[in-house]
Amino acid sequence: MTTYQHSPVLVLGPRGMLGQTVMKYFRQTGRNVIAVDERFENNGWTALTDVLLEHPNGIVVNCIGRIKQKTNQLHDLLWANAILPLELSHRLPESTLIVHPSTDCVYNGATGAPYATSHKTDAGDEYGWSKALGDAALVHRKNTLIPRVSIIGPDENPAGKGLLNWFLTQPKGSQLKGFENHLWNGITTLEWCRLVDEWIRQHPDGCESAEVIQWGTADHLTKYEMLMLFQELFETKHQIESVKTDVTVDRRLIPDVVSVPLRQQLESLRQWMTQNTSKSTVK
């Protein structure tokens, strides 16, 4: 029987927002962490496959993904968010544990919130649709963890499109707008890694069928409240205006595992960033 207590962690997409944190976090736990930087292209993925198949009992964390802030091309979204998970499901042996991040964007955000894990995915845009397809490609595979949650975190790439990185890279005294009718109860990338680590410890022998599990906080914040919290904890001096969009976006999840409030997560993240930013993640 395969046990994952000491398995290597192979990180697909180690240079992205989530991948950077996964690399650093699991190295600090003492695991052998391997950056899989080979690109997954339309014309084949032999190089990527070769690396993964060298570790049939490894833990593959799929941090490759396209977000709508970076592309509006349906082909790109489908290739990274749906086809890659399908190929991982078909090509990797069952002994490989796959951790595949899902997102709250598989729900439309217009009606139905807060969403339970059992709620049928009903994304209204191509990004959410592509992510839902990726989940579906893996949902019947054994030894598969699909954590569904929205995440924020640091990014050593100044051009990173995540909310926290966008905020922290704004010039001093910037005038920013925060949406008061966009609701959120996600977690930080550091908390995401902690929860994955905890799940692996609780399931050292894997699982007989894929586990889709929703994470998040019990309370929610508006995007405006999030920016104000960033301002307080990271000691910036921006001018933040509360604004209301024409359409309310509410993709709050009902968490299967409830994390501590975002303030506590961000306090931990800031301390962790102080200790870890500027250290290379990919070698």
* SSE ordering: EHEHEHEHEEHEEEHEEHEEEH
| Helical content (DSSP H or I, runs of 4+) | 25-40%
Q: Which regions are unreliable across 5 or more consecutive residues at pLDDT < 50?
A: 279-283
What is the CATH homology-level superfamily? NAD(P)-binding Rossmann-like Domain
Number of strands: 14
Q: How confident overall, as mean pLDDT?
A: 93
**How many separate structural domains?**
1
CATH topology: Rossmann fold
- Radius of gyration, in Å, reads 18 Å
Structural class: alpha/beta
| Number of H- or I-type helical stretches | 8
What would your notes on this structure say?
- The strands form 4 sheets. The chain has a 7-stranded parallel β-sheet with strand order 2-1-3-4-5-10-14, sandwiched between helices. It has a 3-stranded mixed β-sheet with strand order 11-8-13. A two-stranded parallel ribbon has the order 6-9.
- Mean pLDDT is 93; it is low at 279-283.
- 35% of the residues lie in helices and 18% in strands.
- It has a single domain (9-276), classed as NAD(P)-binding Rossmann-like Domain (Rossmann fold, 3-Layer(aba) Sandwich).
- The protein has helices at residues 17-28, 46-53, 74-91, 126-138, 163-168, 189-202, 223-234, 262-276, and strands at 9-12, 33-36, 59-62, 97-99, 144-148, 151-152, 175-179, 182-184, 187-188, 211-217, 221-222, 239-243, 249-250, 257-259.
- By secondary structure, the chain is of the alpha/beta class.
- The radius of gyration is 18 Å and the shape is globular.
- The two termini are 31 Å apart.
- α1 crosses α6 (189-202).
- The chain has 8 helices and 14 strands.
- 42% of the residues are buried.
